[in-house]
Design goal:
Length: 376
């Protein structure tokens, strides 16, 4: 008896996928739920599990092919397989090898040698490229500067497309403010051990900023809205996107109904997003939707930036590096941990007054965390 392996049903927002790599070849034994191939969409890499145990009879599509929902990919001849299933460590190693293979640069094409360059002596760029890739230079004629050409992944191409669309279709403007993190830093230091002991997760700053943004969005609901044609759609719920950086690019998982989550729930969800994003197990549903987003360039050392809105949302809050700076406290000068924040927003529906007031509301909540508990 044979069983067909087809492309799973993709969400309406995903038109097609790319068959990136086969982990099995025709004639190989496979076990039920064993990963046969990786399918890359605009948002995430999906695994293709074997529906039955047997032998992979035929592969109907080659790696690199663009496929759509329901297309036939392979045929399995059902049979008993006595080989032991691959150990988790072996599966992880195979996956990493496949990802490394996909990330290999295309063959290097040599450009004509620039005039005046010493023959036979590699340029600094060429030397660095040779060292990074442990290339053999014996017998290679000197030909000038080296280049490498690597195709964009589907995720990177989609990110590029969305960012260009956001710039082209929205009237983007950024406003800034500065937060004194002294009170929040002290509060976190006081309770972080007890919090982690009770809830099993570290107390970070993410939950405070999510809570602060929700309170500010309640006061200024247009910042939680979106544009559809000539209409402004006011969302009466708070699905907060939290940007996560991965090796494949930036993705934005969504905290559904974040206003109904407590601090521990938010921290656990954010940690889970980061782990699943980096090991490739995050789901399309977790990356879909969202009414407002938060991105934190401070973890990479960014002091100030202007984030781009994640359309069709209308605003995004950018967090930055916490840095000790001298500030006026009453009539004294003291050194406090300070952070710049930036709100980029669609000026078609959000006025500067509302953007500034939103940032002030976030500032008040972060600088006096008791406001988050009292909702004042």
């Amino acid at each position: 008896m044979t069983t067909e392996v087809r492309v799973p049903q993709l969400p309406e927002s995903i038109a097609d996928a790319t068959l990136v790599v086969w982990h099995k070849k025709a004639g190989d034994p496979v076990r039920r739920d064993e990963n046969l191939a990786d399918l890359e969409t605009d948002k995430v890499v999906l695994e293709l599990p074997a529906p039955v145990t047997g032998v992979l009879a035929t592969l109907e599509k080659a790696a690199g092919t663009t496929v759509t929902s329901g297309e036939l990919l392979a045929v399995i001849q059902e049979a008993e397989v006595t080989a032991a299933p691959a150990a988790p460590a072996a599966k992880a190693q195979a996956r990493k090898a496949a990802e490394a293979k996909r990330a290999e640069p295309a063959p290097v094409k040599a450009a004509p040698a620039p005039k005046g360059e010493a023959a036979g002596k590699p340029s600094p760029a060429a030397k660095r490229l040779v060292e990074e890739h442990t290339l053999e230079t014996a017998g290679v004629a000197a030909s000038g500067r080296l280049e490498q050409r690597v195709p964009m992944s589907r995720l990177r191409a989609r990110i590029a497309q969305r960012l260009v669309e956001a710039q082209a279709t929205q009237a983007l403007l950024t406003t800034f403010n500065e937060l004194d993190m002294q009170a929040l830093t002290a509060l976190r230091a006081r309770y972080k051990e007890a919090f982690e002991k009770r809830h099993g997760v570290r107390l970070g700053f993410s939950s405070f900023f999510v809570k602060a943004c929700i309170e500010a969005l309640r006061r200024y609901p247009v910042i939680n809205a979106s544009v559809e044609g000539n209409d402004i759609v006011y969302h009466e719920y708070f699905d907060i996107g939290v940007a996560v950086s991965t090796d494949r690019g930036l993705i934005v998982p969504v905290l559904r109904d974040a206003d109904q989550m407590d601090f521990a729930g938010i921290e656990k969800a954010v940690v889970g997003f980061a782990e699943r994003s980096r090991n490739g197990t995050i789901t399309l549903e977790e990356l879909t939707g969202g009414t407002f987003s938060i991105t934190n360039g401070g973890v990479f050392g960014s002091l100030l930036s202007t984030p781009i809105v994640n359309a069709p949302q209308s605003a995004i809050l950018g967090l930055h590096k916490i840095e000790p700076r001298p500030v006026a406290v009453g009539e004294q000068v003291a050194v406090h941990p300070m952070m710049y924040v930036a709100l980029t927003y669609d000026h078609r529906i959000i006025d500067g007054r509302e953007a500034v007031q939103f940032l002030v509301a976030v500032k008040e909540a972060i600088e006096d965390p008791a406001r988050l508990l009292l909702q004042v």
